Amino acid sequence: MSDVVTAPAQALNEAIQEESPTLHAALSPLGLRAVFPQDIPFQAGQARSKTYNGTIGQITDGHGGALPLPSMAAALGGMAPEDLNRALLYSPVQGIAEVRERWRAWQRRGVGDGLASTLPCVTVGLTHGLSLVADLFAGAPGGRPRVVAVPSPFWGNYRQAFALRTGARLVSAPAYRGGQFNPLALEEALEAADLAPDEPAIAVANFPSNPGGYSPTREERQRIVASLAAVAEERPLVVLCDDAYAGLVYEEDVPSRSMFWDLQGVHPGLVPVKVDGATKELSFFGGRVGFLTFPFAPDSAIAEALESKVKCLVRAGIGSPVAASQTVVLAALRSDDVADQVEAVRRLLAGRYRVLLEALDGVDRELLQPLPFNAGCFALVEIGERPKKCGLLADAVRRHLLEAEDTGLVSIGESFLRIAHCSVDEASLPELVRRLERGVQELCP
Amino acid sequence: MSDVVTAPAQALNEAIQEESPTLHAALSPLGLRAVFPQDIPFQAGQARSKTYNGTIGQITDGHGGALPLPSMAAALGGMAPEDLNRALLYSPVQGIAEVRERWRAWQRRGVGDGLASTLPCVTVGLTHGLSLVADLFAGAPGGRPRVVAVPSPFWGNYRQAFALRTGARLVSAPAYRGGQFNPLALEEALEAADLAPDEPAIAVANFPSNPGGYSPTREERQRIVASLAAVAEERPLVVLCDDAYAGLVYEEDVPSRSMFWDLQGVHPGLVPVKVDGATKELSFFGGRVGFLTFPFAPDSAIAEALESKVKCLVRAGIGSPVAASQTVVLAALRSDDVADQVEAVRRLLAGRYRVLLEALDGVDRELLQPLPFNAGCFALVEIGERPKKCGLLADAVRRHLLEAEDTGLVSIGESFLRIAHCSVDEASLPELVRRLERGVQELCP
Fold first, then answer.
1. How far is the C-alpha of B373 from the C-alpha of B354, rounded, in Å?
2. Distance (Å, rounded) from C-alpha A356 to C-alpha A101?
3. DSSP string over A104-116
4. Contact B150, B156 (CB under 8 A)
5. Could you give phi then psi for residue B253, rounded to 5 degrees?
6. Cβ-contact A127, A161 below 8 angstroms
7. d(Cα B383, Cα B365) in Å, to the nearest integer?
8. Is B126 near chain A, with CB under 8 Å?
9. Which of A120, A129, A134 is nearest to A30 (CA)?
10. How close, in Å, is residue A300 to chain B by CA atoms?
11. Minimal Cα–Cα distance from A433 to chain B, Å?
12. Would you say the pTM of this structure is higher than 0.95?
């Protein structure tokens, strides 16, 4: 029966319960059932060094080497033979060991030894990491949808990853109040969510944010941490740190390190989980290399139990992660100057950020209300009071900009527009803002 | 509410109902809910040609070009600049247009115009295609698990993709009877499955098979088709054609084309769905490029409805498919001699197949019973009567071969061992079989 927790799964659940009753209480029915089966990848792992190895269904030269079509090998011609081989063959389900180790070191830049983190599991981009967290902790146990609090406006795909797929209930936590960032949003939303005593919940901490382009200051960060600890006093709380835009901060008082580290040890009822990846951090959008990390020591029993569950779900959904892209990511992570290469991208975006900040500073506040932004790839503007009164909706502005202003923006909800400065030339940003302002003016003169 | 079918989803469902009441009846609750939302990728699609395009959250040079780290661009140095750009940036959720078109042409080699197929959606390898089919058609509607018939012994990951994730019920259809392939297996398993009248079901047609390495002869094929048509007389039937090993056939009387084509139009109650990919067909295991195809004209309303649902689920689970790997696949599909490059791989495997066939022909049938095989990457052997009587299990043989014979094979169920000739040198196969035979002999003298 598919809904039965087998003995091997139960053994993992007990290891999790032992180390973190909070995380155990938060597991979904699917999370409780998941265990990496002892079938082909498991058995192939055991046979790796054997002379006569007929375990794995990939076509090789008979000695473990890839057998690529010449046209495809040529396309990957920039790689050393050993890496080319790795790019063409299956990745381990948990990811290539060197990629995992080097990414862990990358994540822990400036982080003290006192803070724990597992060897990250490789995912197919950030979204796959989110959907794995949804599989593990969301769903509707006993028919009661698990509550997931998300600061709003939020990236629409959270709805698909959590609610549509698993049946969880998304609750909106308004991220801005009176035009200012509200660090208590998640706590307030969970308080209003009508949860039963001790009912587990999930909170999404996405900083720098999408679509807000906001990352909390030092002081706001402390208030967020304290407020989530207060929630954890009431119920098991998994905090999903969606670190897609990690490192892209542009102001002095905004720390660049992930909240994942700040949330460790603040309350036994709170477990942060980190989702990050090469997509934005290494500017490799087409590669689909993400990572899923838990706040436990790499060799602990709970780390092994969680890795078995993640591997089960990765294998069930997509087989194994992308070896070709992992090999490309390795080329970056092995570079002595990878931090400088990444910093060059950050500086370019910082330039666009400042130009956009200045351009938005000049808009008529009756027409458009820019929300505070200081990080990441975006700025968010709200439709102003005057056009709101004439009934103007964000999507009408978007469509008008497409038709009349040769300009594309994203509408979010009824009254927000998102500007992605990451994909616009610095010199074009003032004109883009002028066209946005003019478009709103034209629609509600 | 997450379980509500929204108006846009309902419009898709009606388009599906109009063209194929069978497929509509077979949709799962998640399949009924799925619709590609009009958020960022949708809006970015509409803004693609605009001068001021601030829609999409990928870091570019401001004019649509990628902004790679130099170390990563070097690793992909075998690509033309335009392809490199495409490899680094997001793929459309449905896949890169040229890849889809060229793969469709590849699938339709030798197929007449009278047979329909959609433009395939790109998936993250074959398994992702399977899990999308599971999302669309499996699950447990109204708490009653959808039945999925799978020829056994079967690839263990069907259990994860269908049962563990969605709650469907796998029923085994013994693929061999008295040591011979049984073309009626799926029909027999569904008849025995205690289904309600008109209750939809799924049948898996995996040819060449894993772990069997078998593909039906012309005559067996006709019997399979007739037998599935008989099932469709009783209930809506989705036949999942898992064509992972397409084209790898080694005998004259075994057709190489997919059953997907033979199953079209045989009964209105039967809809075949095709899952295939570059993994085995183009020998690109680490790339994770698969495809999902339906038997409808590319511009039909039902094709568009199904594409919207697939895109919703792809976005929910993994964001978008792998652009980097799709670009590598393009290099092959654009080659004039891609068919020759693929044929060279097939010929190599055909050589190993013949050597393995001969080696297995010589084994003591009391110790090991080879099952018929003629295609794909594998041969399957059953533990013979004598060692069965002494209680020998396949996994004990496997572990003994690892420890005492420097040999790795995969055990399946209680009594089967799978030999993957695709990953063993031709010259080593006789010795591998000798060691297997000796191992069984040693365990049950």
1. 11
2. 37
3. HHHHTTT--TTS-
4. no
5. -90, 10
6. yes
7. 9
8. yes
9. A134
10. 26
11. 10
12. yes
Label residue B60 by pLDDT band (50, 70, 90): very high
Residue A1 pLDDT level (bands cut at 50, 70, 90)? very low
Mean pLDDT of B163-188: 96
Q: Where are the domains of chain B?
A: 7-36+93-333, 340-443
Chain A interface disruption, residue of B12, B49, B72, B436, most A CBs within 10 A: B72
H helix runs in B20-55, sequence order: 21-26, 29-33, 40-46
B53, B75, B422 member nearest A328 (Cβ): B75
Burial of B129 (0-12, 13-18, 19+ CB in 10 A): buried
Dmax over CA atoms of chain A, in Å, equals: 79
B299-to-B99, B138, B262, B294, B295 alpha-carbon distances in Å: 17, 26, 22, 12, 12
β-strands A378-383, A368-370 pairing = antiparallel
Measured from the Cβ of residue B400, the count of other Cβ atoms closer than 10 Å reads: 18
Q: What is the DSSP string of B207-248?
A: SS-TTT-----HHHHHHHHHHHHHHHHHS-EEEEEE-TTTT-
ipTM of the complex as predicted: 0.96
Exposure of B421 in the CB half-sphere (CA atoms within 13 A): 34
- Which of A1-10, A183-192, A433-442, B414-423 is the least confident region? A1-10
Asked if residue A377 has pLDDT above 50, the reply is yes
Residue A445 burial (CB count, 10 A): 8
For residue B406, the one-letter residue type is: D
Write out the CATH class of domain B7-36+93-333: alpha beta
CATH superfamily of A340-443: Aspartate Aminotransferase, domain 1 (3.90.1150.10)
CA distance A360 to A343: 25
Tokens at residue A417, please? 């527009």
Give pLDDT tens digits for A141-180. 988 999 999 999 999 999 999 999 999 999 999 999 999 9
Q: Is the pLDDT of residue B413 over 80?
A: yes
Tens of pLDDT, residue by residue over B340-372, are 999 999 999 999 999 999 999 999 999 999 999
| Dist CA A354 CA A336 (whole Å) | 29
Per CB-CB distance under 8 Å, the chain B contacts of A143 are none
CA B307 from centroid of its chain's CA atoms: 18
Q: Which of residues 148-177 of B touch A (CB under 8 A)?
A: 155-157, 159-161, 163-169
Report helix angle B125-137 to A301-318, nearest 10: 80
Q: Report the residue of A72, A248, A381 to disrupt the B interface, i.e. the one with the largest count of B CBs within 10 Å.
A: A72
Interface-testing mutation among B99, B423, B426, B433, with chain A (most A C-beta atoms within 10 A):
B423
Q: Tell me the residue ranges of DSSP E strands in A105-252.
A: 121-123, 147-152, 169-174, 176-177, 180-181, 201-205, 237-242
Q: Which residue has the tokens 């999507």?
A: A395
As a whole number of angstroms, the distance between CA A290 and CA A246 comes to: 12
Closest by alpha carbon to B247, among B217, B273, B282, B222?
B282
With a CB-CB cutoff of 8 Å, which residues 213-272 of chain A face chain B? none
Q: Are A275 and A129 in contact (CB under 8 A)?
A: yes
Q: Are A31 and A135 in contact (CB under 8 A)?
A: yes
pLDDT tens column, B112-151 = 999 999 999 999 999 999 999 999 999 989 889 999 999 9
Spatial contact of B61 and B81, defined as CB atoms under 8 Å apart: no
Q: For residue A60, give how far its alpha carbon lies from the nearest alpha carbon of chain B (Å).
A: 5
Structure token pair of residue A325: 């892209």
Nearest to B74 among A43, A78, A322 (CB): A78
Residue A3, pLDDT score: 66
The whole-angstrom distance between residue A61's C-alpha and the CA centroid of its chain comes to 38
Judging contacts by C-beta atoms under 8 Å, the chain B residues touching residue A124 are 124, 288, 318-319, 322
Q: Residue A34 carries which side chain, given as an amino acid letter?
A: A
pLDDT of B231 strictly over 80 = yes
